[in-house]
Amino acid sequence: MAREEIINKLIDEAIKILNNSYAPYSNIHVAAIVYTDKGNIYKGVNVENSSYGLTICAERSAISAMVTAGERTPQIIVIVTDYSEPIPPCGACRQVIAEFNPKAMIVMYSIKSRKKIVTSLDKLFPQPFKLSL
């Protein structure tokens, strides 16, 4: 399957779960799909909390599902929103994605504008925090 076909399939998968998002405070719904080097997909949605700091982003939710399944190498992260424009991963999500693949492809898509942005994490986040062990 060609790269564009894979991306479109992943966007469709994220759109299917977008309504599962729990966003009563921001009213911005987000779904994320992680596509791994093994060709598997893991899904996540944002889950807000009245104590805002406890909110879980869709990207971290999907990465957690990937790790729970025993995988460690995301290749593509798709982020779909019902906001008027595509939205990038927040700083915390960028750091979590970088932990596993600092060169992961990032695809952002808005269902309202139908605008799609494709980039890489290293362009969005050129200097992630790293421990030297």
Describe this structure in words.
- With 133 residues, the protein is an alpha+beta fold.
- It has helices at residues 3-17, 58-68, 91-100, 121-124, and strands at 30-36, 41-45, 74-81, 105-110, 116-120.
- The chain has a five-stranded mixed beta sheet.
- Strand 3, helix 3 (91-100) and strand 4 form a beta-alpha-beta unit.
What key phrases describe this protein's structure?
133 residues, alpha+beta, 5-stranded mixed sheet, 4 helices, 5 strands
Brief overview:
The chain is an alpha+beta fold and 133 residues long.
Strand content: 15-25%
Poorly predicted residue ranges:
none
Compute the separation of the termini in Å: 39 Å
Looking across the biggest beta sheet, what order are the strands in? 2-1-3-4-5
Overall body shape: globular
Task: Output the radius of gyration.
Answer: 14 Å
**Helicity level, as a percent range?**
25-40%
Number of helices: 4
Secondary-structure element pattern, one letter each = HEEHEHEEH
Largest sheet: 5 strands, mixed
Number of strands: 5
Q: Averaging pLDDT over every residue, what do you get?
A: 97
Helix/strand-derived category reads alpha+beta
